Structures are given as structure tokens and as C-alpha cells.
Amino acid sequence: MARETLEYKGYLYLIADNAWQSLDIATIAERFDVKSIKNTAGDIKTVGGRGCSFLYTTQDHKKLVYRSYRRGGLIGRLLRDSFFKYARFAHRAFDELELLQTMRALNMPVPEALAARESRGLLFIKQDIIIKQIENTQNLCQLLMKKSLNDRTYIEILNTCALLYKNKIVHSDLNIKNILIDNNKQIYIIDFDKCYIDKNMSKDLYVNMLNRLLRSFEKEQNLHQESFYFNKDTFVKLMHSHLDKI
User: Fold this and answer.
1) 109 closest CA partner among 8, 185, 215, 195
2) Where exactly are the transmembrane stretches of this chain (predicted)?
3) Distance between CA atoms of 151 and 238, rounded to whole angstroms?
4) H/E element holding 142?
5) Is 48 helix (H, G, I), strand (E, B) or coil?
6) What is residue 87's DSSP assignment?
7) CATH architecture of the domain covering 137-244
8) Most buried of 22, 82, 124, 164 (most Cβ within 10 A)?
9) Taking the domains of the chain in order of start, what are their residue ranges?
10) pLDDT tens by residue, 34-62
């Protein structure tokens, strides 16, 4: 099915359902202007390893996330923010917006996307997205730098991950920095770049996702040592019990 995009000054815009529908395209385009955001927004905080994302508060007190899609590794040094337009994940921003909409329609605990944008050249695409912040949260890495988590919390984390398997959603980078917990102990999963629905998703693939999550715990534990309050044996035991029930 063709996407219903809006074109304006060389960019294509995809607007989420029930988001910014009352705004004209010029106003939407201005909301993607990084210079304008940084000149008018408050509480700007850069996040992510390559400085391509930041959190901010708009003048009307909306807390949002802006992310420009970037490459990593050696290729990223040559083509920092350009993606081959015929590659499988060429339209990463549009794909992520649509996947987030689908998941929210399933009442899954994920962020709400507002709009995505593409600039298309002859061979390459540049793109960005704006998403609502999930307020009053910390990721698992931040929490475990302060205190240990009880078994119940780990079980809830695993049950939240199970929603991905239940709905056949493949998360390409399930790690402890992409799982948030708010002040009310509600758990969220974020960062669905290059994630997708696979109707034939196997349990083995889900196991691989959880093993990736486990490796992210181990990575941070090796990095922070005694100041990271993670008990691997406990989590592995709970993970195996969780998988036995699926």
C-alpha cells in the first residue's frame, strides 16, 4: 500500500495518525529544522553515541525526541547520514513511524511517533523522525548503576519483551538502554529502527533477542564492575523459566 506523504521543498513528510493533522506543511517543516529547534526549545539534551538524537521541550511545553538517522562503523565515516535508496531498510524513518503506530494500536508500551521526513537524492536518502518523549523514565542501565532490581521487576521486563514475540515483532537491538521504567514501574521498549513484523517469527529468534539483552547486561557489568548492581545468575534463571512458559 502506498504511503500518503506530503511533499514540501524537496522533502517528503509522513504524518502519524491523529498527530499534527491541523498543522500546515510549512509549520511541520519548521518543526524539523534543527537550528530552529535549538534556538527556541528548552531542556535540550543530546543522547545516543553519535550525537544524532536529542531530547527537548517545545515552547508549548511538549517533550519530544528528534532523531536523525546515522550510520555507524567505517561506512558511517564515508556516508554519515545517507542510505542507499534501494536497500532493504532504506526508508528507516517511515518504517519506524508505521511500526510504532501498529504497536500502539495493539496497546504495546512503546513511544508515540509524530512525523518522519525524507530527503531523496538520485541514489541516497537522508531522514529524520520526531517522537514524543516517555516522561519520568530511566533506562535499565541507569537504574542498575544505582541499585539492584528485584525478581518481580525482572519478570515484568521479560513479560514486556514477550509482547514482541506475541505480536511477531523483531527488535533488532534489544538492550538495556532501550528498556525504560517510569516512576510508576511501567516498563517501555524504545528504539525500533530497523525493526519489523515477521509473521513467521520463531521462538529461536525470540531467544536470540533475549540473549542479546543478556549480553548488554554483561557488557555494562564488565564496564562498571562493582558499581553495576546486576546478578547474572538470577536473571538467567528467570529468563529460562520465562522461556519455558512460552
Assistant:
1) 185
2) none
3) 8
4) helix 140-144
5) coil
6) S
7) Orthogonal Bundle (1.10)
8) 164
9) 5-132, 137-244
10) 999 989 898 899 886 554 889 999 988 99
